[in-house]
Amino acid sequence: MQATAHALGPEGAIRQAKTYGDMPRPALQRSEDFQPVPDAERLVLDGDWSRGLPPCASCHGAPASEPPLVEQGFAREAPYLHGQPENYLALTLEAYAEGARKSDPMGRMRAFAEQLTPAERGALAQYYSSWEIIE
C-alpha cells in the first residue's frame, strides 16, 4: 500500500482519502452459524478502559443493528472489519501485537493489540468474521 500511496502523490492521496471517508456503512447481517462472543462484543462496544482500550467501534464503526454509536460520539476512522475472514483478522491482530505490522500511522493498533490476550484477539476475529455484507 505504501508504494500505491506514494504513486498517487499528495493530490491523489487526498482524493483517495475523500473517497474512503465518503463510503457508506455496509449493510450487514449475522452469519447463519453465528455463536455469541461476549468478550469480543464487550471490547467492540465498550472497550476496557482499565487497560487503555477504547471500544473497537470507536474507530472501526459498528453495524446498523448495533446501538447508534455515532450518536455516542463514535466515528469511523479506520476500515470496517465486519465480514473480514477470521484467519486474516487473527493474523493481523497478532502481527500488530508483535509489532510486525506497522500500517497504523500513530501506532494505535500496535498499542491496543499488545494489550489484548491471544484469546481476546481470537474472539475479536471470530466476532468480526461472524458478519456478512448484504449486497
Q: Globular, elongated, flat, extended or rod-shaped: what is the shape?
A: globular
Order of helices and strands: HEHHHHHE
Number of helices: 6
Strand order of the largest sheet: 1-2
- The CATH architecture name reads Orthogonal Bundle
Uncertain regions spanning at least 5 consecutive residues: 67-74
Give the full name of the CATH homologous superfamily: Cytochrome c-like domain
Largest sheet: 2 strands, antiparallel
Number of domains: 1
Total number of beta strands: 2
Helix content: 40-55%
Calculate the mean pLDDT score and round it.
82
Question: In terms of topology, how is this protein built?
Answer:
Layout: H1 2-21, E1 28-30, H2 38-45, H3 57-60, H4 86-98, H5 108-115, H6 118-129, E2 131-133
Antiparallel strand pairs: 1-2
Helix pairs in contact: 2-6, 4-5, 4-6
Describe this structure in words.
With 135 residues, the protein is mainly alpha-helical. It has one domain (2-133): Cytochrome Bc1 Complex, Chain D, domain 2. The chain has helices at 2-21, 38-45, 57-60, 86-98, 108-115, 118-129; strands at residues 28-30, 131-133. The protein has a two-stranded antiparallel sheet with strand order 1-2. The longest helix has 20 residues, at 2-21.
